[in-house]
Amino acid sequence: MTKETGWNLENSYAELPDKFYSIIDPNPVDGPKLVVLNESVATSLGLNVDLLRQQDGVEVFAGNKLPEGSSSLAQAYAGHQFGYFNMLGDGRALMVGEQITSGGKRCDIQLKGSGRTPYSRGGDGRAALGPMLREYIISEAMHALGVPTTRSLAVVTTGESIMRETALPGAIMTRVASSHLRVGTFEFASKWGTIDELQELADYSLKRHYPEVKFDGNQYLNLLKKVIEQQAYLISKWQLVGFIHGVMNTDNMTISGETIDYGPCAFMDKYDPLTVFSSIDREGRYAFANQPRIAGWNLARYAETLLPLLHEEQEKAVELAQEVLYGFSDLYHANYFRGMRSKLGLYNEEKEDQSLVEELLSLMAHYKADYTNTFRSLTLGEKECSALFETEDFKKWFNKWEERKARQSESKEESMQLMRNNNPAIIPRNHRVEEAIGAAENGDYSVLERLHHVLSMPYDYLPEQEEYTQLPPETEGPYRTFCGT
Ligand code: AMP
Ligand code: MG
């Protein structure tokens, strides 16, 4: 049966030394029910949607039954959480295997919320429906926005309640990732493994994510360079769409450069670089404007783990690592300003572009303008839609921008097209995400499905998306998100 479903699993990760994982059996649940299935992800994985919806398919998503070829395990990793080092590991996740698609792509299939593992510490290994749906919607929206990310294949409810502040419906999300290798995996190897084991992990990562790196010269320095490049690209994408991850611990930073672990994340409405949504981030460590700097900090932790592989003399190894790490900031800025120029319809590059961008952002901050809608209005040529646009400051900026556009050879139409391709008409606004989750918790999944649908084409500027551009009603306090663990 599972063969017809299209499962085609391997587990190359299990070929790493034993200490990198624990083989675990799934923890069955009482009454699994499929509540969301991402048909386009299923199809791209080569899976049969109709069979996935049947009892046998659902049992797989619930961890009640393993698909043919699966050897389930929990991965070991460590990580710096809010700056402090801890031993972690998959405390509530089960790796089912790596699906090999017909195109030869290798994707991790992981159940999140699947029960206790040897790494669970005090936790129950379970997840609540709300946070799993949140990850589902936001990760899929990120994908559609063109931001590298893990994907979401399905969510099942377990039929069991879990205890948090109150009893909540339990759920399991099936996550698809190009791998779950993290900075934290290397921190684990560096702390508790031998140099040979660390090297095996590095070789495995290179083979899996950066096969173009030749195994000669200093391939581990090249691995560090690649991860830095991918992260510089990823974080620039976050900043360009106004995404706040919320918990950028080193265990939540991938070697592949995909966004992972959508806990307390959220998109910014009004532009404020100091925005923090997460209730546990009291110091604002992971505030919007800090994300690039924190990525640099995390990458320095990554580089430290690689030192023994970079050079046999520690001093030389540090020198090599530092040189590459210093490059992160320039790479990030280049990506970011390239993206910003596209958001402003600029094809070529001029020296003053950076200040043009920064002036706009500071006006947005000063006049508390909505981040996404400001760029959307500029794209659509709407002039009277926000308080910002009425101000003299803005009008001055606008004239400068018009003059700047006139200095490029591309036509107005081409400039508009570039803006449409880079400024989303919609993002998953917090109040709409909450609304969809609330309805789903009461058994109505239509709100969520519609939200997922409109978010899947953010650059299409469709009439049906318009209502989703509305801002939330003014609330008394700032919006808060919770880890939901
Ligand atoms: P996260 O904040 O989701 O990145 O998780 C940090 C660590 O806590 C990871 O090792 C998770 O596996 C673990 N964890 C989170 N929630 C639970 C839970 N309910 N039960 C056991 N472990 C958990
Ligand atoms: Mg995590």
From TrEMBL:
> InterPro entries of this UniProt entry?
SelO
Chain positions recorded as Mg(2+) binding sites: 252, 261
Q: Which domain of life is it from?
A: Bacteria
Q: Which residues bind ATP?
A: 89, 91-92, 112, 124-125, 175, 182, 261
Q: Which Pfam families match?
A: SelO (PF02696)
A single MF term (Gene Ontology):
AMPylase activity
Task: List the EC numbers from the record.
Answer: 2.7.7.-, 2.7.7.108
- Say which enzyme class the record assigns: transferase
Q: Which cofactor does it need?
A: Mg(2+); Mn(2+)
Q: Name the NCBIfam families on file.
A: PRK00029.1
Family, according to the entry, reads as follows:
Belongs to the SELO family.
Q: Which HAMAP family match?
A: SelO (MF_00692)
Protein name in the entry: Protein nucleotidyltransferase YdiU
Species assigned in the record: Fictibacillus phosphorivorans
The major lineage groups are: Bacteria, Bacillati, Bacillota, Bacilli, Bacillales
